[in-house]
Description:
The structure holds 2 protein chains of 2 kinds.
Chain A: H1 7-11, H2 22-50, H3 54-75, H4 80-94, H5 99-110, H6 115-141, H7 162-189, H8 195-214, H9 217-249, E1 256-262, E2 267-272, E3 278-282, E4 285-289, H10 293-308, E5 312-317, H11 323-327, E6 333-338, H12 341-351, H13 354-358, E7 363-367, H14 370-376, E8 383-387, H15 394-398, H16 402-410, E9 417-421, H17 432-443, E10 446-452, E11 457-463, H18 470-475, E12 485-487, H19 508-522
Parallel strand pairs in A: 5-6, 5-8, 6-7, 8-9
Antiparallel strand pairs in A: 1-2, 2-3, 3-4, 9-11, 10-11, 10-12
Helix pairs in contact in A: 2-3, 2-6, 2-7, 2-8, 3-6, 4-8, 5-6, 5-9, 6-7, 8-9, 16-17
Chain B: H1 4-29, H2 34-54, H3 60-80, H4 88-109, H5 116-140, H6 143-163
Helix pairs in contact in B: 1-2, 1-3, 1-4, 1-5, 1-6, 2-4, 3-4, 3-6
Amino acid sequence: MNSPATPAQRNFGSDSGPIFPWREVTALFLVGVSLAIAQFLMVRDFVTILYGEEVVIVLVSTTFFLGLSLGYRWSLKLSQRAFMGLLGLSLLLHLTFPHSYRFLAAGIARWGGEGFAFLGLLFVYAVAFNATFATFLPRAIHPQEGQEGEPGEGEGSNPGGGAWVTRRLKRAYSAELLGFAVGFALISLTWNRPLTWLLPIYWLGLGGLVHLVFRRGVVTLIYGGLALLAVVLLPYLDPLGSALIYEYKHNIPGAKVLYSVNSPYQKVEVVENAKGERLLYLDGLLNLNASDLDDLNHYLAVLPAKLIQPRRALIIGNGTLSSAPRLHPHTRELLSVELDTGVLKAGKAFFTPPQALEKLDHWRLQVDDGKHFLSQSREMFDLIVMDIPSPLTVQEGVLHTKEFYRLARERMPMTGVIAVQISGILTKNDRIPARIVAALRSEFEEVMVVNSKKADRGFAYAARRLPFTVPQVRAGQVVDESRLEVIPPTEIDPFLTEAHPFSLDRLDLVAVRGVERFLGRYF
Amino acid sequence: MLWPRTYGFLTGLHFALLQFGYLYVLQINITSTYLTYGLVVLLWMVGSLVGLWWWGKSRALESLLVGLGAYYGVGLLAFMNPFSTAILPLAGVGVALSGFWAGGFFPFMQGSGLGMDGVFFHENNGFLLGIGLCFVGVTLIGRPALIWFPLVTGGGLIVWSRIFKS
């Protein structure tokens, strides 16, 4: 066990005491890399499987931290033999990543499984994946019998003593932290690319871990063969697993996944159903259905633009860019601001052909956070179109707050209009549509709402002074709309008597709606 | 140290409130771009590494105070310069300063009688609770949660450090 110091050992310090074996340093580094990648991918995947309200994101994240806790708890209770056995099983399971849990989740949905089955699946994988990695660090700091570096094997004067443990802690934890940082960087390098980019790197790292821990050529060889098989099958199994989730969990018969990437912000997927309709999913939540897009774009963007004929218009969100060609003829300057490049790529590939965008001579696109853009811009906009998802996460919620609308108001002239889809039909209560309208009303003198059955939601137009009237709006309804309900500014307030405006200090519905939706879906 | 499990748990809770507090403060007041998230995660790790190696056992109180001071300094800076990405480098320094104790804490706890497996276990449990608490606080209370939560946990740990110094 006592070998001459390698460069890695020397780099880790030459103070007296047992030298921290280079294998352990490298293994912990690889554990850090793997932990970062596995945790990231699995949190994204499970959030997508369970649908991505922020409540679900928090639930999944905390479950994975629970997996870490269990790993720490068991780390020193396992004999070296048991540790190696469980590690081997866990690493084999890692090679089924991410197909096995997707197939299982689809199976649970197919056979009518309850919420507890999904939670059980999440828990099992959190333990099997994260707990395994978490056992390394305490075992490296307190080596067990039969493990390299155990007290008494080294050169230190007081192996097992306080200073000895501290030195091992510093080196082991540093190696893992550095590995985690590298894993984090690798994830960032593969944004907006399919899993076929990241997973082979991940499995390669695990192969290094197998070699360092088991130290048997034959084990490494077997693992390498299986990993190679996993890499070869990945391009087939990855879309298949995702498609099964959409077929059985989202009830989309014949679902085909055309596009699936992890953007810096969410999992972006384009699904095609048996009728050939394309659906955009963000973290497993339906963002839009291409066939509904026309009605949404009409009421949110085209109708107010037709009525205003804005000199300068701004679209915040609308990553599919589908509004731009429709709004373009009615403006002299059009700007789209979208944060997520993953959604933009999906939009250009599947929803708005690049040829349609190339023709737009006075349109430009800026990748930025909407509120940051508005705060930094010095331009004034006659029309601001808010084409963003419902407030089911804090960041989406912030874009529906009165503070945000105040920011928008500062960038609008007196008759400038902000158009917002209100995620439902406005009724007199304290739910999301009323909350959004209340936030608008707290910053704008006039708010008009149209409730469209055809678009299955309401839209609010707010301004200091609205430059159009109810009859004008009604006249602009889509052809096959049976009866458009238009609530004029003078009749808005009675709808808001129970509604608290969304504000930075009152985003409670993000949590409440998230919990309601989660419980309603699974229990 | 008295009640090292509770101390470890409370420290983990404090770390989560600080780390997620930074995230929310910067995302709400400056920008939600990935840059903000990357900055908080990576510089927290840098701070932890530095704290792990250079901040010794006797610096618990100072480290906690520096971490809290950095957090409120960044919060004030963000509040006074809304949406200014120019403050992000300074915010990064603040995050790293707060991360110091996230590294120094583990050597500090060596000899607490827990064993490092126990220290990681209890710290991680606190962190886990902190993730949920921060989300609940931000959605139900908003900015006051970002102001008061770390102050309560940090203050508690500082008092603890003074009372149970021996």
